[in-house]
């Protein structure tokens, strides 16, 4: 065999070995690697962190690569908690607690079938998939499944039906009975995430999690529901969660209030009607994806098209996954307060990646 053929064979063998290597996962702690060790530029990561502000961390190939501020501090992540809810919905379907995503939730909350008589009792049609895509139009006049209405009243309804009715937990026991055994303990989270960010009497269901633990959740979805040698969520469901955004031309509800349950609580906003934003062709099972909006513009134009994430308070609290770069990152208390700021932050991050992509 000639020298050139030997070289090619060695390169192919090396590539095969890399491909065959088991993906890395953090154990009780994240294994650290320097940025250069995973093909990233430390100085450019410094520029990224300076622009973002707050505190956070970046992981690549399953290793902790970079952190700024206190990435171990647990804190409320506002609406970035929502993909955790859809995760437990999918888990309930997978475990047979819910037969189908199309099951009507009125069987758990019969009072829904008695609301809005003048609208033909439309809320009796609300199914799990509507709640998990913000298309239930709960509190709005449109019929479920016909329009997008991002609102915190329906998210609280979703949370209560799922965790209190389906899983049989209470505000006081949901961490112990559901969150820890089914998710955070298998992922070996370090900073004790909780669904009681402000306690059981103040917006129960809000998630408090550290950036480094939030990255574990992102890594779970990057690896399509697999954690080490265990499949914590089926591959098809995990992939669907982050790749099924609403069509860009899907209507947005008008701001016309409809009747809600008399004791309905909210997970955040107290506005009535609550209709906070459009889906921008980038909303998939409570995740934000990098889709195309109504004008055909990419959600984050300077990030890879496969990027997706969870965002709270308009950007200051976030976790982002970029599968094509094998990156998961999270920040909190950041200066990022708009979609343009999200895009600029992700642009700076992508710029830190060298030839090893």
Adjacency order of strands in the biggest sheet: 2-1-11-10-9-8-7
Determine the fraction of residues in helical runs and give it as a percent range.
Answer: 25-40%
* N- to C-terminal distance: 32 Å
What Rg do the Cα atoms give?
Answer: 21 Å
- Give the ordered list of helices and strands: HHEEEHHHHEHEEHEEEEEH
Roughly what is the average pLDDT, rounded to an integer? 94
Give the percentage of residues in beta strands.
Answer: 5-15%
Unreliably modeled segments: 1-20
Give the CATH superfamily. Answer: DD-peptidase/beta-lactamase superfamily
**Domain tally:** 1
> How does the overall form come out from the CA principal axes?
globular
Number of separate strands: 11
Name of the top-level CATH class: Alpha Beta
CATH topology: Beta-lactamase
Task: Characterize the structure shown.
The structure is a single chain. This protein has one domain: 3-Layer(aba) Sandwich (Beta-lactamase), CATH 3.40.710. Helix 2 packs antiparallel against helix 9 and helix 3 packs parallel to helix 5. With 357 residues, the chain is of the alpha+beta class. The strands form 3 sheets. The chain has a 7-stranded antiparallel β-sheet with strand order 2-1-11-10-9-8-7, with helices on both faces. Strands 3-4 form a two-stranded antiparallel ribbon. The chain has 9 helices and 11 strands. Strand 5 and strand 6 form a beta hairpin.
